[in-house]
Design a protein that fits this description.
The protein is α+β, with helices and mostly antiparallel strands. The chain is built from 9 helices and 11 strands. A 4-stranded mixed sheet has the order 6-7-11-10. It has a 3-stranded mixed sheet with strand order 1-5-4. Strands 2-3 form a two-stranded antiparallel sheet. Strand 8 and strand 9 form a beta hairpin.
């Protein structure tokens, strides 16, 4: 059966940018991975093979010129204007010995590698698959990190029995809902005595005060209309403790104010704390308050 065009496999045009190619592969990788329900090992392998070629400018140039025969052309002496002899590490597009490289896919790469491992090397035999468990943690635990105890009952295929296991798992600060952690050699033991891995899928419980948007923390703050008009320095609750927030004069309802560097701390990158301002208008006024507001309105010449 003839090999499909790599651009067709990923569902992108031949003029697609590197980012478009990467995005297309991300989508297919999640959909097709064999360890997912409804996954397709053959199509996943085909998509990875296409991505391995098209993500590399040199390999992509060869493929654009020679198609799937690029490997043979590379091997030929003096083929093409440069002979392609300098393109080290490239053995054509035969589809053999394809590694599943998620290293440059950012957060998705971490998740996929954590969930499914790096490739097909040892196959997907039942005993070699990792154990996968769910773990729910509190919002603040996801921000600051924590350590959890896990009780497992794992298969020992070498001894033909199950065994109980108690392990401590470090949850890194900044982990997001839906991400996974791989704990090496804490899964089932195959007939050769090799231990599989434990994959922990993290679920983050919602918090009543804070939300998360990527690296940023989001909360709301209620202030009076006079405070909004005059401005004020207020103290707010942050995920790391109390923070000072400058509310500038003339702040409008639904304005978003920022406390820099007080979001999610990834070490090399710190998000911000975003504060959405809710301006509260009093429902009842005393006679003196009403008179003061009416005088103010006259000085403005219009309602505000």
């Amino acid at each position: 059966m003839p090999k499909r065009d790599y651009y067709e496999v990923l569902g992108v045009s031949k003029t697609a940018s590197d980012q478009e190619i990467k995005k297309a592969f991300r989508k297919l990788a999640v959909k097709l991975h064999p360890d997912r329900e409804g996954g397709d090992e053959a199509k996943f392998k085909e998509a990875n093979e296409a991505y391995e070629v098209l993500k590399d400018p040199k390999k992509r140039q060869l493929y654009d010129q020679f198609g799937h025969s690029a490997g043979a052309n590379q091997a030929g002496a003096g083929a093409g204007p440069q002979g392609f002899s300098g393109f080290s590490g490239f053995s054509g597009f035969s589809g053999q010995n394809v590694e599943f490289d998620f290293g440059d896919l950012g957060g998705l790469g971490d998740i996929l590698e954590g969930m499914f491992g790096g490739g097909f090397g040892s196959g997907f035999g039942r005993s070699s698959r990792p154990i996968q468990v769910q773990m729910a943690i509190d919002f603040m635990e996801s921000i600051k990190g924590t350590t959890k105890d896990i009780s497992l009952r794992v298969d020992n295929h070498q001894k033909g029995e199950k065994e109980n296991r108690q392990i401590k798992v470090k949850i890194p600060a900044g982990i997001e809902d839906g991400q996974s952690i791989r704990v090496r050699s804490q899964g089932s033991i195959d007939s050769q005595g090799n231990s599989g891995d434990l994959i922990i899928h993290i679920q983050v419980r919602p918090d009543k005060h804070f939300q998360r948007r990527g690296p940023d923390i989001v909360s709301e703050l209620e202030i009076g209309m006079v405070e909004a008009a005059l401005g004020k320095t207020v103290e707010i609750d942050g995920v790391y403790g109390k923070e000072k927030l400058e509310v500038p004069a003339g702040t409008q309802p639904n304005a978003i104010l920022r406390v820099k560097g007080k979001g999610v701390d990834h070490g090399h990158l710190k998000g911000d704390h975003l504060v959405i301002i809710n301006v509260i208008v009093p429902k009842r006024l005393s006679k003196a308050q009403r008179e003061l507001l009416e005088k103010f309105t006259k000085t403005r010449g219009r309602l505000f």
